[in-house]
Amino acid sequence: MTQVRVAVDVGGTFTDVCIFDEDDRSMRVTKVPSTPSDPMIAVMKGVERGEINLQDVSLFSHGTTVATNALITRKFPEAAMVTTKGFRDVIEIRDGTKDNLWDAYDDVPGPYIKRRDRFEITERMDFEGNVITPLDEVEAHRLAAVLRRRGVTTVAVCFINSFANPAHETRMRELLEEELPGVAISTSAEILPEIFEHDRFNTAVSNAVLAPLVSGYVNRLSDALSNGGYGGDLLLLHSGGGSMTPRMVERFPVRLAASGIAAGAISAQFIAEQCGMPHAVGLDMGGTSTDICLVNDGELRTTKEWQVEYGHPIIFPSIEVLTIGAGGGSLAHIDIAGSLRNGPQSAGADPGPACYANGGEEPTNTDANIVLNRLGTELAGGAKSLDRDAASAAINRVIGEPLGMETEEAACAVLKVANANMADAVRLVSIRRGLDPREFALVAFGGAGALHGADVARELDIPTVIVPPNPGVTSAMGCLLVDIRHDLSEMYSGLVGEIDPEDLEQHFAALEADAANRLAQERVSPENTVLQRKISMRYHGQWRSLMVPMNRGPESLAEAVQTFHEQHEKEYAFRQDEQAVEVYQLQVTGIGRTPKPSFRKATELTEDPGDPVTTRPVYFEDGGWQDTPVYERTRVPAGARITGPVIISQLDSTTVVPPGTRAEIDEWLNIRIHVKEA
Question: Which of 45, 114, 150, 210 is most buried, taking the most CB atoms under 10 A from its CB?
Fold first, then answer.
């Protein structure tokens, strides 16, 4: 029986499906339009269109935007927060900052749970976890009755100092579960057992508001796959670059808040490594936005604090990705000062760009590309037809006439602004950190990434652009490359010289036991279980800490201190070896190894690309209309060399090789566009 692995990534415009055949190591792909009202419809349509027999599927992995979209749109179920008396407004006060410090009218969006739905209760722990005021259980029962009358379906329990002693939160959860059967309860000490109440409270609140939505979606999809014949667990990609099963998603749905974004970054890292490029920038340009990640020395940058909306932090390890509103559906418009702008507003999947002829009347990047003939008249293998006349009319009406430009000039201007926006974002993740983009390769993917990759690289003097074999579904492929992963942490404070090594070992062992138990619940065998330790340290008297690896053995703490000094010098350009070092936090990462696909490498290379399938006039800013050969990518062999201008089309994307550049197909079937010789 043929065994296949399936990965699905739901985007704002299209849902992408990768099908990897384990026998011959071949990959095939398909795309279907996304269904924002219910993403599961598009997922199952993708399975149907890909002609996938679910009985033959050995692994089904999924990157989802359900959690992200819920936080953006704020379409939450009836939710409540229960907190210590006097701390009702912690998540509204925040840390007192805002995104644009100088704009007096730019207010931070309000909390995910409104003030009228935040309730106080009598209880108090001190910072060491000692009980100051016992939990008032009579109050708790009265509060449960109020929540029941309000029809609350999910509750966040957030008590002060619960990271030091979670007993009151645990008891409150038990009381609520007795009184409110079926209601989802999230406790802050379980979600994030760390100091800083705003961070902990907000992460728990985010988890609570997402719980019914995400777990409901995941369970419905899991049941649909099982009913179709799939016998394994549905694996959901989470923001930290690992995956989790529906059992864990029910407890920690907030970990999926950057699910789809992380998949593209993982693929960019894999492709760069495959091509022998230790430094790379991932440019994932889809229909609604562009996600930019950085691979430095072969490693993806990660962050522990991130947010979908400013002022509402989610404190879980996440791959660091910068997202901007620049996609194929980003709207071009003239602002009140008469300047041309691009995004962040998007036409989305419905009504979509003007060329979709589906009711959209505003011009987008897709419209500009079709006006310049860089795109054909079909997308996704005929799933979507494009109307060039409608695109031209929209570009001319909104941009061309107001700015006194011909239609082609206006379309070029639209793309130049979009490319400049993406180039600025790349500068933010590279130059701002002292890294030179000229030393990096640009991995361009997503449905529109290959259209814009060479122009963005020119803007940044990046010498090489890498376009993967299936750029439009590269993010979906990332779902096949990850392990099951859980990150657990615990506060642990003390000067290095005063810490009892045995006590430290016991705390690490407890975290490892919890991680191993979670992996066992997800059916990970002991031989596929890997436990990694990390320890967070800082110089005594500082508040900013650094996380470094922690080995096992009697010398492990001393080794970690030495690593901390070295890492501190790299991050902040100084070290203080004579200064006392303080331990701040412990972390254990539990990894459940999953089998990875082994991709087939071409053994025969030929420089002749063969004959183009057609030739069509394409407009380029530096040469006007030029007769440009169009190649079908599946017919271009490995080793082929092509000089621009050339268009390379395929099911899931279109690659533009502009004049003055050359391209080659490597042994992994990536297109390498040499924009500028190193």
Answer: 210
The whole-angstrom separation of Cα 642 and Cα 606 is: 12
Say if residue 654's pLDDT is above 70: yes
Burial class of residue 559 (count of CB atoms within 10 Å of its CB; 0-12, 13-18, 19+): middle
How many residues appear in the chain?
A: 678
DSSP output for 630-659? EEEGGGSPTT-EEESSEEEE-SS-EEEE-T
Contact of 33 with 383, CB cutoff 8 Å = yes
How confident is the model over 546-572, as a mean pLDDT? 91
**Measured between alpha carbons, how far is 243 from 63 in angstroms, rounded to an integer?**
9
Q: How many CB atoms lie within 10 A of CB 72?
A: 11
- In the chain, the percentage of residues whose pLDDT exceeds 90 is 61
Which tokens go with 97?
């900052």
pLDDT of residue 548: 92
Question: Can you tell me which residue has the tokens 């065998």?
Answer: 525
Whether the CB-CB separation of 46 and 84 falls below 8 Å is answered with: no
534, containing H or E segment: strand 529-539
Element (H, E) at 143: helix 137-150
Calculate Rg over the CA atoms of the chain.
26
Contact 203, 226 (CB under 8 A): no
Helix (H, G, I), strand (E, B) or coil at 159: coil
Cis peptide before 659 (omega within 30 of 0): no
Order across the sheet with 26-33: list the strands. 26-33, 14-21, 4-10, 57-63, 234-237, 243-244, 484-495, 581-592, 529-539, 546-549
